[in-house]
């Protein structure tokens, strides 16, 4: 940790944006707080300084300091050859990054939101994900596609879709969804070091949230394993799986449920592909009930996959049908109250857990 | 299709006005436009004076009328508006290939053409002369024509083209015998482009192609055995049978694919060129001057990714050459029916790079242009767009009945077979004897036969290969906290397959 802090002291420009880290020097053992934005920035910074082959490419990542300020300070530190501002050509620059990755460089491609990745999805799937297989191992693609995913606040239908299910269904990709700052740092470092294409789905509303981080997290060699979920809250009565922003909602729901005597176990998936089926199934075998929470569209979503996995492996252990909480099956509306209805809220999770625990008011009967 | 006067059933696209007049006007305006263009690139004199001659003036007008590709847009290439063209006046002096043959060719095929063609042809040609000679003084070498290639180079080119042709013919045979399956796209007729460009590359230079990639693989150095086994789907193929006809990859030879989506290879090629520049500037490998060639067709030139990459390659001055294999047809869609401005080379200057049009049926012309374009890239002067006018003798793929193309058009191009032309050049200039060329033919036949036998005898991939190579990380999982790769959940990739 100290090594990291010293490095940061050298970069004058970074001090301005790292108030959390500069505070670290004054406190010795208090819990450190770090925003997700700073976590991502520090992870990028450390990986770029450790390996010269890592470079960042995207719209507004350089002079604008990042559309969401994730890449703040990186242009001054690493120069325009490694932090590239691109024209508005998602297909073009995603493909260029894949071509660079074929030759051993390690590009980090930023999409301003993952909705724009649809313009480049041909390259993400066809030339990144499938290349190692098509070439029988000759062309590996150590690339990271990152950017905010899912709903923000009032941005409308074309800026609010969650792409976890789409990318997670494709073999050859790894799909990661961090929640806290620890997740963001650890998973982004793992993604950049990983020799395969990784789709890194962040969340815009989480960028400004602060989480406490331990010293281990701040170390420059900190890395989280890809494919391992984290049990955020241990419980006995029901398992709630969630990823990204929904983990926060699930934790709040768990607190509410505790007052009603229901002890919920909250699993932060962290990795959608590969999905940590063993952790999920072990948890379900313990609690016998499962609620899956996600922000995206319900049909063919992540919850559907988790439900199928649990039914295949732990059917005998289920005491209640698996419930999926997902976004409404509509393009995201603009009006604030409708948007609130279209995205799962804490109350939805609480109600679903109660249904799963008592089955006193089955959903079908209520409808 | 929009071929004026060619296909009566598509008469709706036939120009009502005199196609020839329109052609002259367009031609002249093209030249004038190109002369006015001011590109910031340097052209060394040897390049422009030896610039390949356009074959188009030799084209009888009635036929390819709408291929207004006559203007040597190499005129755009230089800041001094150079000429370069003229077959009629300089052909006998020029060292370049088709001088005599073109005129003979012209006479012989005139019978196929509309009777008005000859007169109009002259008009067209004189139109060209007027436009060009007004602008330029041309240097002509009156002394004995210097040859463009040495004997060894000539034989190498010949062997490569014959290998490509023999291989593709064998592919067709094998397909109809059921040994090859799926989509197979053959390259017959276009060998001059592949050979002309790829034979100038080093091993570390990269080539990115489309689904019509067998011959690019062969020219780049991938063994015929490996390519044939890949097509048969055997485990000894260059991609262990996992890629197939459309996805040829070779790390050793820097063949970066083989892409089925048109336009998909262009950004990947631009990225490979980007790497070359990155290695030089950031990783400080000072002598890294690797060039990338991107091959794609005329249909691709209407695709967004093409324009995106022209922009970025010129913006960042990447060492890449964009080679358009304009064979006029995208499956059954004629280039002229689908493109607002069919002259693809003009799209280069729009983005700030030179656009060149060359006769893609003449390997020597292609080679001359390629030398210059690749040299430009190697020196760090940026990208070039080269449009090679070529033709595929077979259909789009082996499943294509190829009913829409006019047989007269096919015959016209069949008469300009690049292999026959090179053979003629070599024998007429005493670079090689018939016997030597026949020996090469025989050798290639043996190579191809051997490739088929090898592929036949190779084993199919074992069942366990189904789940391999999905990830470079062998167990498909990332790094654990101890810094080593995790190995968990072996069922992860299996799905329902019993492996």
Describe the structure.
With 367 residues, chain A is of the alpha/beta class. Chain A contains 17 helices and 14 strands. A seven-stranded mixed beta sheet of chain A has the order 3-2-4-5-7-6-12, sandwiched between helices. In chain A, helix 10 links the parallel strand 6 (174-176) and strand 7. The longest helix of chain A is centred in the N-terminal third of the chain and has 15 residues, at 36-50. Chain A is globular and about 60 Å long. Chain A starts with a helix and ends with a helix. Residues 1-11 and 13-28 of chain A have low confidence and may be disordered. Chain B has 499 residues and is of the alpha/beta class. Chain B is 42% helix and 7% strand. Chain B contains 19 helices and nine strands. The radius of gyration of chain B is 24 Å and the shape is globular. In chain B, 53% of the residues are buried. At the A-B interface, helix 6, helix 7, helix 8 and helix 10 of A face strand 2, helix 12 and helix 13 of B. Chain B: Its EC number is 1.2.4.1.
Number of strands of chain A: 14
Range of strand content of chain B:
5-15%
Strand order of the largest sheet of chain A: 3-2-4-5-7-6-12
Computed Rg of chain A: 21 Å
Range of helix content of chain A: 40-55%
Shape of chain A from CA axes? globular
What are the SSEs and their pairings?
The complex is a heterodimer of chains A (367) and B (499).
Chain A: H1 2-10, H2 12-17, H3 19-26, E1 32-35, H4 36-50, E2 54-58, H5 74-78, E3 83-85, H6 90-102, E4 106-110, H7 121-129, H8 131-134, E5 144-148, H9 164-168, E6 174-176, H10 181-193, E7 198-202, E8 210-213, H11 215-218, E9 230-233, E10 238-242, H12 245-259, E11 264-268, E12 271-273, H13 277-287, E13 290-293, H14 302-314, E14 323-325, H15 336-342, H16 346-358, H17 363-366
Parallel strand pairs in A: 2-3, 2-4, 4-5, 5-7, 6-7, 10-11, 10-13, 13-14
Antiparallel strand pairs in A: 1-8, 6-12, 9-11
Helix pairs in contact in A: 4-10, 6-7, 12-16, 13-14
Chain B: H1 19-36, H2 45-49, H3 61-64, H4 74-77, H5 87-90, H6 99-109, H7 117-135, H8 151-176, H9 191-198, E1 206-208, H10 214-220, H11 224-232, E2 249-250, E3 255-256, H12 265-281, E4 292-297, H13 304-316, E5 320-326, E6 329-330, E7 333-334, H14 335-338, H15 347-350, E8 355-359, H16 363-378, E9 384-389, H17 407-414, H18 418-428, H19 434-457
Parallel strand pairs in B: 1-4, 4-5, 5-9, 8-9
Antiparallel strand pairs in B: 2-3, 6-7
Helix pairs in contact in B: 1-7, 8-9, 8-10, 8-18, 8-19, 9-10, 9-16, 11-19, 12-13
């Amino acid at each position: 940790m100290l090594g990291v802090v010293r490095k940061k002291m050298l970069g004058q420009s970074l001090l301005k944006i790292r108030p959390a880290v500069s505070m670290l020097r004054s406190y010795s053992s208090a819990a450190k707080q770090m925003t997700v934005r700073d976590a991502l920035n520090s992870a990028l910074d450390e990986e770029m300084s450790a390996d010269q082959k890592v470079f960042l490419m995207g719209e507004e990542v350089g002079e604008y300091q990042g559309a969401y300020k994730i890449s703040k300070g990186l242009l001054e530190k690493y120069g325009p050859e490694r932090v590239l501002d691109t024209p508005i050509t998602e297909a073009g620059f995603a493909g260029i990054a894949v071509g660079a990755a074929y030759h051993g460089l390690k590009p980090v491609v930023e999409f301003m939101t993952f909705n724009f990745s649809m313009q480049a999805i041909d390259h993400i799937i066809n030339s990144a994900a499938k290349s190692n297989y098509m070439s029988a191992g000759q062309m590996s693609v150590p690339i990271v596609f990152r950017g905010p995913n899912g709903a923000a606040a009032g941005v409308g239908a074309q800026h609010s879709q969650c792409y976890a299910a789409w990318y997670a269904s494709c073999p050859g990709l790894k799909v990661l969804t961090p929640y806290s700052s620890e997740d963001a740092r650890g998973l982004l470092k793992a993604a950049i070091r990983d020799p395969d294409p990784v789709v890194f789905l962040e969340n815009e509303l989480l960028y400004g949230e602060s989480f406490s981080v331990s010293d281990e997290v701040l170390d420059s060699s900190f890395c989280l394993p890809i494919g391992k979920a984290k049990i955020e809250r241990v419980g006995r009565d029901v398992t709630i799986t969630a990823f990204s922003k929904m983990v926060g909602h699930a934790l709040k729901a768990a607190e509410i449920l505790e007052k009603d005597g229901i002890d919920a176990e909250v699993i932060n998936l962290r990795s959608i592909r590969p999905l940590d089926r063993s952790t999920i199934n072990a948890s379900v075998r313990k609690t016998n009930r499962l609620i899956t929470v996600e922000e995206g569209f319900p049909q063919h979503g992540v919850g559907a996959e988790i439900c199928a996995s649990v039914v295949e492996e732990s059917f005998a252990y289920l005491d209640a049908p698996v419930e999926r909480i997902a976004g409404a099956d509509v393009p995201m509306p603009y009006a604030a109250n409708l948007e609130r209805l279209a995205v799962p809220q804490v109350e939805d999770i609480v109600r679903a857990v109660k249904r799963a625990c008592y089955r006193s008011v089955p959903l079908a009967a209520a409808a | 299709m929009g071929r004026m006067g060619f296909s009566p059933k598509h008469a709706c696209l036939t120009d009502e006005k005199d196609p020839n007049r329109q052609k002259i006007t367009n031609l002249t305006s093209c030249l004038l436009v190109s002369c006015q263009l001011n590109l910031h690139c340097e052209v060394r004199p040897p390049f422009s004076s030896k610039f390949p001659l356009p074959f188009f003036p030799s084209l009888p007008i009635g036929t390819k009328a709408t291929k207004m590709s006559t203007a040597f847009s190499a005129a755009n290439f230089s800041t001094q508006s150079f000429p370069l063209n003229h077959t009629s006046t300089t052909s006998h002096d020029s060292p370049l290939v088709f001088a005599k043959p073109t005129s003979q060719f012209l006479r012989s095929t005139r019978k196929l053409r509309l009777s008005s063609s000859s007169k109009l042809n002259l008009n067209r040609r004189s139109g060209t002369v007027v436009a060009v000679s007004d602008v330029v003084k041309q240097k002509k070498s009156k002394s004995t024509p210097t040859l463009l290639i040495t004997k060894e180079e000539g034989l190498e080119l010949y062997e490569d083209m014959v290998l490509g042709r023999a291989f593709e013919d064998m592919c067709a045979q094998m397909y109809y015998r059921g040994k090859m399956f799926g989509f197979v796209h053959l390259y017959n007729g276009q060998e001059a482009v592949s050979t002309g460009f790829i034979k100038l590359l080093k091993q570390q230079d990269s080539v990115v192609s489309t689904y019509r990639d067998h011959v690019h693989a062969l020219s780049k150095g991938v063994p015929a055995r490996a390519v044939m086994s890949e097509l048969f789907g055997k485990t000894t193929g260059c991609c262990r049978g996992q890629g197939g006809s459309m996805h040829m990859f070779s790390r050793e030879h820097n063949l970066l694919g083989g892409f089925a989506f048109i336009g998909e290879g262009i950004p990947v090629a631009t990225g490979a060129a980007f790497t070359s520049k990155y290695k030089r500037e950031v990783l400080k490998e000072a002598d890294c001057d690797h060039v990338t060639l991107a091959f794609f067709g005329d249909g691709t030139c209407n695709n967004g990714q093409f324009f995106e990459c022209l922009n970025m390659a010129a913006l960042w001055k990447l060492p890449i050459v964009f080679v358009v294999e304009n064979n006029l047809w995208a499956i059954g869609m004629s280039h002229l029916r689908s493109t607002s401005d069919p002259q693809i080379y003009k799209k280069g200057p729009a983005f700030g790079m030179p656009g060149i049009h060359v006769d893609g049926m003449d390997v020597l012309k292609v080679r001359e242009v390629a030398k210059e374009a690749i040299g430009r890239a190697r020196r760090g002067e940026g990208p070039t767009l080269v449009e090679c006018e070529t033709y595929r003798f077979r259909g789009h793929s082996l499943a294509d009945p190829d009913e829409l193309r006019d047989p007269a058009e096919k015959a016209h191009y069949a008469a300009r077979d690049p292999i026959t032309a090179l053979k003629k050049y070599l024998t007429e200039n005493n670079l090689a004897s018939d016997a030597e060329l026949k020996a090469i033919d025989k050798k290639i036949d043996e190579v191809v036969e051997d490739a088929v036998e090898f592929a036949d005898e190779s084993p199919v991939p074992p069942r366990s290969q189904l789940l391999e190579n999905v990830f470079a990380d062998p167990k498909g999982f990332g790094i654990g906290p101890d810094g080593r790769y995790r190995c968990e959940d072996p069922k992860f990739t299996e799905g329902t397959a019993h492996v």
